Amino acid sequence: MSRDTVRPPCVHPGFARPLPARASLPFLGRVSPGDSSRRAGRDGRKWGMESGPAIFAGTVFALFGGGLLTWTVSRVRHRAPVAHDVNPVASATLAGLAAVSALVLGAWCFTHL
Q1: C-alpha angle with apex 50: 48 to 38, nearest 5 degrees?
Q2: 56 and 107: one domain?
Q3: Are 59 and 106 in contact (CB under 8 A)?
Q4: Who's near 91: CB < 8 A, 6+ residues apart?
Q5: pLDDT tens-digit readout, 18-47
Q6: DSSP 34-77
Q7: How many domains does the chain have?
Q8: Mind listing the pLDDT tens digit for each residue in 58-104?
Q9: In this structure, which of 10, 13, 50, 98 has its CB flanked by the most CB atoms within 10 Å?
């Protein structure tokens, strides 16, 4: 394999092809596999493939927590049971704690991008 062959570490050498003359792949670059400095954002933080799942998980937690909190508050305001055959105070408290926990987890996911 020639020196000009660029391949990510997850690609088998048999599938890698040499680059044409004076061609480069900016998303891969010619760096060692352990060097991740090419993915630094404007503020110097590293951006990689981990940001997509963090955004998805944060969105799911935030939507679930917001929806559960809204539903719980509306049920309590209308004096309707949050859960049937359960103590109303306990069910509202447990649902509120679950909603706030989901919102906190969503915020935590967004801060770890």
Answers
A1: 10
A2: yes
A3: yes
A4: 81, 82, 83
A5: 666 666 555 554 445 555 544 455 555 555
A6: T--GGGB-TTS-B--TTHHHHHHHHHHHHHHHHHHHHHHHHHHH
A7: 2
A8: 999 999 999 999 999 999 999 999 999 999 999 999 999 999 999 99
A9: 98
